[in-house]
Specification:
By secondary structure, the protein is of the alpha/beta class. The chain has helices at about 15-30, 55-60, 65-70, 80-85, 95-105, 130-135, 150-165, 180-195, 210-215, 220-225; strands at about 5-10, 35, 40, 75, 110-120, 120-125, 125-130, 140-145, 170-175, 200-205. The protein has one domain (about 5-145, about 170-225): P-loop containing nucleotide triphosphate hydrolases (Rossmann fold, 3-Layer(aba) Sandwich). The chain has a six-stranded parallel sheet with strand order 2-5-1-8-9-10, sandwiched between helices. A two-stranded parallel ribbon has the order 3-4. Strands 6-7 form a two-stranded antiparallel sheet. α7 links the parallel β8 (about 140-145) and β9. α1 packs parallel to α2 and α7 (about 150-165) packs parallel to α8.
């Protein structure tokens, strides 16, 4: 498949915005773009006009997907997917996720997958987001905050990706300020130098400007990155 797997250093770091911006920019070019998010949690906390991640992605993808198509599993509590599933007295089936993602990608020019939390978040007690990324064999984009603490979080995520043989296409720091302070500028330079990976920036954006925001990213280089299938890593106990 041609596409990208967007992960983050943590929850609420901007994965959905980056994923939506990528989808919107590719769609604006005339590409048929499918979006996929394996699990959405925290629906009980949504208020007002704020859409769920799956709703946002469905609204900017150009592959005629419903929010339910984008996210096969949806849970109310704000919790790790495996715990949210346990509370709902169900079990997430990784094979179902792989089949659904590949089916979406087969009908599109590009597939954009948004992970849940970070790479080491469990979908089941023994199957991580990282395992799904390895099975889908898409280049990985890491979304990180620009401020204090991001160096450690970003480099740990990079190491986790590389340990599984994933292709790391780039890091995106967001929301990047109009006038970055010396710490933020140093964080970007340090992550890029130590990880030997390009670090892009994405400024604060709005829903109607997602395509323009995504067009500032190095999408072609990311999508052209040669990828493999990853390699097995020890299962969780």
């Amino acid at each position: 498949m041609r596409g990208l797997f967007v992960t983050g250093t943590d929850t609420d770091v901007g994965k959905s915005v980056v994923s939506a911006a990528i989808c919107a920019a590719l769609a604006a070019r005339g590409e048929r773009v499918a979006a996929f998010k394996p699990v959405v949690t925290g629906l009980d906390e949504l208020r007002g006009a704020c859409p769920g991640d799956h709703e946002l992605l469905a609204s900017v993808a150009s592959a005629d997907q419903s929010p339910e198509d984008v996210a096969p599993y949806r849970f109310g509590p704000a919790a790790s997917p495996h715990h949210a599933a346990q509370r709902a007295d169900t079990t997430i089936d990784p094979s179902r996720l792989v089949r659904a993602a590949r089916a979406a990608g087969a009908e599109a020019d590009a597939l954009v997958v948004e992970g849940v939390g970070g790479l080491m978040v469990p979908l089941t007690p023994s199957y991580l987001i990282r395992d799904l990324a390895a099975e889908l064999a898409l280049a990985v984009i890491v979304v990180a905050r620009p401020g204090l603490g991001t160096i450690n979080h970003a480099l740990l995520t990079v190491e986790a990706a590389r340990a599984a043989g994933l292709t790391l296409a780039g890091v995106v720091m967001t929301p990047w300020p109009a006038r970055p302070d010396p710490l933020e500028a140093s964080n970007r330079e340090t992550v890029e130098r130590v990880a030997s990976v390009p670090v892009s920036i994405l400024s604060h954006t709005s829903r109607n400007l997602l395509a323009a925001a995504g067009d500032t990213l190095t999408l072609d280089a990311w999508l052209d990155a040669p990828v493999g299938g990853g390699r097995p890593v020890p299962a969780l106990a």
